[in-house]
Amino acid sequence: MLLLRLALLSLLLSLALPARAVTLLRDPDIEQALRALAAPVLQAAGLSPARVDILVIDDSSMNAFVIDADSIFIHSGLILRMDTPAMLQSVIAHEAAHIANGHLMRRPINARNARTAAALGTALAAVAGAAAGNGEFAVGAAAGLQGAALRSFFSHTRAEENAADASGMRFLMAAGIDLRGAVQVMELFNGQEALSVNRQDAYARTHPLSRDRFRRITQLAEAQGRTVAPDPEATYWFARAKSKLSAFQRSPKWTLTRAGEFGYADIKLMRQAIAYHRQADLRRALAAIDGAVALRPNDPYLHELRGQILMESRQIKPAVAAYARAANLAPNNALILGSYGRALLADNQTQKAVQFLETARSRDGRDIRILRDLAQANAKLGNNGMASVLTAERYAIAGRLKDAKIHAERASNLLPRGSAAWQRAQDVLFAAEAEEKRRK
Q: What Gene3D superfamilies does the database record attribute to this sequence (predicted)?
């Protein structure tokens, strides 16, 4: 991963209010932690943990939502406000319940899978428009949805919320997770319904809150009838996700004074490494990350972080070695493979870089860093058609559909008609032309 604060996966969608742009935080370590926390909940919901991604949005407000049946989005601000793994798992359980209960079937955008580049940009543009209260913009962004249909698009009905509460609590109980976590989450939002809409937290706008909901959730938690001991694995991964996220989003001084608050030696060293790296102290950053690696030598995410520190310190060849070790330990992780490919590209190993970047893209086509690097590598190799379609997809995800169309048209003229890459260009053209029609 690149430094979360400086090189996040930026969708930076073109909104009427740019400050409301949606930015995904893509970090293999944090996403692994969220997968570990979500797995028992998703299994209890009858959903595949391998299919449903838990993705983080860079937003200090507290919210979580679903776009389609394959992704749950959680704001970074909500993660940082959670005090226990059970609290975060209760949020995941509630969103999983919306998927399992079929609440997305009424949403037209669900027909276009958000795993594709153009569709993800369109979907998150709708999210951003809805969150900003800009209904008219969101109408256009969400592939032609109109009027009241869009205004309620991301706002669940009270009946859906009640059903998701009941199902989510059932999933938590089946997974052996303390239901009091859900009560604690609801307590964070107490009083929201009394506020005007523009003062409510995003969660309150998309998930109707009420005293009745709080009472029902409390009653369901009390029905569990016993205190559930925290799962050690969930406790560890919760601490790791929150620690790494805060280390990149808080000041280095703040991080260093709290590095050991969770009681895990490797997490303490990881946080110190991030803080020292952000202070441009390479010697101390490497000493800290090497200490963490010594405690967990087969942890690919620590090797990946070591690669990031070296890469951003312009130590290219040592970075390549660190990323190679991470890729060897996690050969199926798209974000790690993408980072390795990026390092290889910086080391002028272009052909090898393409191999790893293409594998990464095929596993996760939503990371614009991978698309950018793969386009650059293909251009260096003279594969201009492929470079153009990758650039078109990158602009589509960023919401820059006018620019995306230019590159998609170029790709269409350069690529073999009917090929997979040519078809990807047509997907981008479809999204761009639909946006043009909306604006006329």
A: Metalloproteases ('zincins'), catalytic domain, Tetratricopeptide repeat domain
Give a yes or no: residue 290 inside a domain: no
| Banded pLDDT at 301 (limits 50, 70, 90) | very high
H helices then E strands: how many in the chain?
A: 22, 5
Q: How many domains does the chain have?
A: 1
**Closest alpha carbon to 73 in 90, 85, 84, 58:** 58
Residue 270: exposure state from Cβ atoms within 10 A (0-12, 13-18, ≥19): buried
At 145 the pLDDT is 34
In whole angstroms, give the CA distance from residue 297 to residue 246: 24
The residue range of the domain holding 116 is 9-223
Contacts of 148 (CB under 8 A, 6+ apart): none
Shortest CA distance to 339 belongs to which of 325, 355, 357?
A: 357
What is the domain-level CATH number for residue 59? 3.30.2010.10
Residue 141 lies in a domain: yes
Residue 136: CB atoms within 10 A of its CB come to 13
Whole-number Cα distances in Å, 24 to 181, 239, 324, 366? 26, 21, 25, 10
Tokens for 394? 């990158």
* Contacts of residue 15, Cβ cutoff 8 Å, sequence gap at least 6: 21, 125, 128, 129, 132, 134, 137, 399
Q: Is residue 139 part of a domain?
A: yes
Q: Is residue 286 part of a domain?
A: no
Q: Is there a contact between 344 and 320 (Cβ–Cβ < 8 Å)? A: yes
| pLDDT of amino acid 201 | 53
Q: What are the residues whose beta carbons fall under 8 Å from the beta carbon of 365, sequence distance 6 or more?
A: 115, 116, 117, 371, 393
User: Residues 418-426: what's their mean pLDDT?
Assistant: 93
Q: Which two tokens stand for residue 140?
A: 């256009």
Q: Would you say the C-alpha torsion 280, 27, 113, 130 has a positive or negative sign?
A: negative
Residue type, 126: A
